Amino acid sequence: MALLISDDCIACDACREECPNEAIEENDPIYLIDADRCTECVGHYDEPQCVAVCPVDCITSDPNNVESVEELKFKYEQIQAEV
């Protein structure tokens, strides 16, 4: 399942710097997470790094992008093949 940034985002840039898949981008007024690139850090870390560093706890699961751990691993492998 990809993650979603809520309207509570303060655009502090902490999450974007931590994303190993470069799935987070600036937008006005809040940041956005690209669901096609978000693996919830599967393949990199045990937990989503953006969630861990967000000072306002505005990053949650996106109910419109539900994926299993296996699907997230597959997505991670596809992203790594691009590199």
What is the fold's blueprint, element by element?
Layout: E1 3-5, H1 14-18, E2 24-25, E3 32-33, H2 49-53, E4 59-61, H3 69-82
Characterise this structure:
- This protein is α+β, with helices and mostly antiparallel strands.
- The protein has one domain: Alpha-Beta Plaits.
- Helix content is 29%, strand content 12%.
- The protein contains three helices and four strands.
- A two-stranded antiparallel ribbon has the order 1-4. A two-stranded antiparallel sheet has the order 2-3.
- Strand 2 (24-25) and strand 3 form a beta hairpin.
- The longest helix is centred in the last third of the chain and has 14 residues, at 69-82.
- The chain is globular, with a radius of gyration of 12 Å.
For the record, the count of structural domains works out to 1
> What structural category do the secondary elements indicate?
alpha+beta
Give the count of helical stretches. Answer: 3
Strand order, largest beta sheet: 1-4
- What can be said about the biggest beta sheet? 2 strands, antiparallel
Mean pLDDT: 95
Distance between the termini: 22 Å
